[in-house]
């Protein structure tokens, strides 16, 4: 009489949590993408008032998404002893390597294009660094709702919904590798 909590259980024991996980992920994807279109404005998507309404929508959906993971956890009994924050990946243990290693990898991956840019660009390398560190440039960026949408709100809310909330539901069914590959598919289903 298993609840499907054991990843190595029989197919019948795992079928319930897997169906619940897939339905939960579909619900998250459709609610996230659907929240972008719930207002039905005739204005273009880059209009500041449309962007602000969409901010509200995705922030509400992102705030409610962990509740769906908690509900899934309670109904299926999978990882019942794990706190919700830890299940979503919000924990202090291992924070330093989890922060520094992706940053280092990103820096290494962008090293080639940055060197190419420094060789091709007519301005000096230090001029670009000065611009990037200028507080006036940052003030302009933080005052632009399109920049906030593209660089802050969209990445953070998408990571929360499509990675932090979906992965805990998918990993017990598929394992970590296939679960990581499946999350973008749910994003695509939501867009369709």
TrEMBL record:
The keyword Endoplasmic reticulum applies. The keyword Transmembrane helix applies. It catalyses: Hydrolyzes the peptide bond -P2-(S-farnesyl or geranylgeranyl)C-P1'-P2'-P3'-COOH where P1' and P2' are amino acids with aliphatic sidechains and P3' is any C-terminal residue. Keywords: Endoplasmic reticulum, Hydrolase, Membrane, Protease, Transmembrane, Transmembrane helix. Residues 147-189 form the CAAX prenyl protease 2/Lysostaphin resistance protein A-like domain. It is a multi-pass membrane protein. Pfam families: Rce1-like. It is an enzyme of class 3 (hydrolase). One of its GO terms (biological process) is CAAX-box protein processing. It is found in: Endoplasmic reticulum membrane. Its main location: endoplasmic reticulum. It comes from the Eukaryota. Its EC number is 3.4.26.1. GO terms for cellular component: endoplasmic reticulum membrane. The chain crosses the membrane at residues 19-39, 51-72, 92-115. One of its GO terms (molecular function) is metalloendopeptidase activity. Belongs to the peptidase U48 family. This is CAAX prenyl protease 2. It comes from Melospiza melodia.
